[in-house]
Amino acid sequence: MPTKSGKKHTMRKTKGFSLIELLIVVAIILIIAAIAIPNLMRARMSANDASAAASVRMINNAEIAYEAAYPTIGFPAAMSTLGGAAPCTPAIATACLLDNTLATNGGGSGKSGYSFTAVGSASSGAVNDQFFTTGIPVNSLSGTRSYCSVQDAVLRLQSAGNITQVASYNACLLLLPMSN
Predict the structure, then answer these.
(1) Which of 27, 85, 140, 178 could staple 155 via S-S, CB 3.0–4.6 A?
(2) Which letter does DSSP use for residue 178 in this model?
(3) Cβ neighbours for 146, distance < 8 A, ≥ 6 positions apart
(4) What's the rounded Cα separation, in Å, for the pair 122 and 151?
(5) Cβ–Cβ contacts within 10 Å for residue 9, how many?
(6) Which DSSP letter does residue 2 get?
(7) Which residues contact 133 (CB under 8 A, 6 or more apart)?
(8) pLDDT digits over 56-112, tens only?
(9) Half-sphere exposure at residue 155, Cβ-oriented, CA atoms within 13 angstroms
(10) What does pTM read for this prediction?
(11) CA distance 33 to 15
């Protein structure tokens, strides 16, 4: 259509998305994320729980192997004795039975969202004839329960939701064993 000056105006067709269309796409993405993130967190906590149970079992195996290798000492007084810096040479103070990250509890930061302890002690005499090991979540978002074990190598666990450290050797014996 000609204007006063006699020139034609051309209508430009713009290609792209309108603001409303973009807002709808963003809203859909946010809804999907709101559904997926809690499931992802639960899956991560479940994986951390499984890793913690496996770590307590590894500590049990290392404790028993150490006691067999050094019967005059028995179970080591500290969990760090079960590891050793690479390249590790087996000895009384560095048994090389555990990965050093687990043996030193990740340098204090734990492993897979859990913190681990293991202490050998003597119930009578000079030889450490018992040990007590625990695995507790670092916080409520990293795991769902605490684990413990003693020299019978039975993995015991607190009820789901209880993430406090098992208080003692005897308290561990009172907990139910983990089923397969």
Answers:
(1) 178
(2) P
(3) 134, 135, 136, 137, 157, 158, 162, 163, 164, 165, 166
(4) 12
(5) 8
(6) B
(7) 56, 59, 60, 63, 79, 116, 117, 118, 119, 148, 149, 150
(8) 999 999 999 999 999 999 999 999 999 998 899 999 999 999 999 999 988 878 899
(9) 19
(10) 0.81
(11) 29
